[in-house]
Amino acid sequence: MLDCGHEFAFYTQGPLPKEETVLDDPILVRRIITVVRLHPDEHFILFNASHSVRCRIIKLVKRTLTIAPEKLREHIVYTPKVTAVVPLLKREALEQTIYSLVELGVNDIQLIITAKSQQELRLSTRQRLERIMIAAAEQSKHFALPHFSEVAMLEELLQLNNVAKRILFDPDGRMLWDVMSDIRAVHVQHVVCMIGPEGALTTEERQRSVDAGYVLCALTPTVLRSSQACSLGIGVVRALLRTR
Q: N or C terminus of the chain with fewer C-beta within 10 Å?
């Protein structure tokens, strides 16, 4: 992540400039000139899937910008690896959750279908979520976008064998501090954090999750909405376990 204060950041799918360049992407230029209203000698950040670069505006001519890039930087990927497992929540809650996950620096997002979740993710919804991820990256300056896996059934997820430490945020679980203390006591390279849908996992789903190695963890003495539980739980995990 760049130490860039309040400079604006913009995502582009193409390669980043390495020398003085005329930027002629009409959508991007419009955002820079009309939406955020930057002027010559001001700076902004361009980033793509792997790198970012700080750019200085040299001049504006009609609908084009001439920019001078500074040092190209590779994205910082936070460790340990954190995977967020999120049921298909209702639209607003799912969008809020995805935005928060990018802000918090997760490495992977896995959407799942459970008994009480939504049962389908439309292509248009997935595309909107991907745009939300980009918006969150632009705002938070965390440019390493998480890998966004295809939707899976909960059963499929539980059958995967890996060495990750698994946590299921559940109001009947162990206290958060105790769970985190246990994890901090060992060298952990990958943490999988799962939340239940609104209405929670069924008793059978929760038991199967425990059998698959998930540790139940209570975040607060109260019952939180799924989106709140996800943001709070993964925020604590990332803050307390971050090694980079």
A: C
Could you identify the residue written with the tokens 């919804």? Answer: 125
| This prediction's pTM | 0.91
Contact residues for 23 (Cβ-Cβ < 8 A; gap 6+)? 17, 29, 32, 64, 65, 66, 67
Q: In a 10 Å sphere around its CB, with 0-12 CB exposed, 13-18 middle and 19+ buried, how is residue 238 labelled?
A: buried
Q: Which two tokens stand for residue 216?
A: 């139940």
Distance CA 34, CA 181 (A): 49
- Residue-level pLDDT at 216: 97
Structure tokens at 24: 């002629």
Cα dist from 185 to 100, 112, 163, 194, whole Å: 27, 30, 16, 21
